[in-house]
Amino acid sequence: MIGARTMPNHVICVKWGNKYTSQYVNVLKNMCKRHITVPFEFHCLTENNQGLDSDIKTITLPVHPGIKTWWSKLYMFSPDLPIKGTMLYFDLDVIVFRNIDRLFSHNAGEFQIIRDFNRCRVKDWKVSNSSVMRWETGRLDYLWTEFAQDPNNVIRHNHGDQDWITKRASKDIRHWPDEWIRSYKWEMIGRKDTKIIKGDKKTFENPPTIAEENCVAVFHGEPKPSNCVDPFVVDNWR
Asked: d(Cα 7, Cα 107) in Å, to the nearest integer?
């Protein structure tokens, strides 16, 4: 009897423009290497691979009117992507600080995404946050193909890529357990804390509260990992 074919695991990120330096990609790769024990390959979709570590596999973003800012992320769903298998995507402004093998295996075959962090303010919040996602290639091609046909129209009616994903993929979405992937400032720090400025660096009055199941911290807004002097950040973003 022939067993089921195992799909290869891929970690993927997107770097477009100059909002994030190549250091963010290199650090994300290092964090994944420290906290993943199953076999995987690390890829970066980018139009500029300068400064990336040599062991990062790069995929060149095409020239297309929809390839800009955060909308570039949608190209990960293109049927033309030259890699196939299980895709685990991270935004560049995250910290992976504990083992994340389960992000590959949880609800295997389903499209997993974060329940947006306004969940800490609004009960039963249903909007999704695209900072961490996982899917099988071929299942969500429509997110790119329909967007690519008329990107200006999609952009006009959606604030960002995650709004398009929330609406268009509503029947496919499964949310990660909230405690696994948390907002650094809203949930781990607490949104009422006061940010302290120290020159070009930032921190908070109190250290983050790290839940037992928490393995990824998301840094939406400010501070970013590169300008935060919280010891938790300094110890893990490297």
From this structure: 14
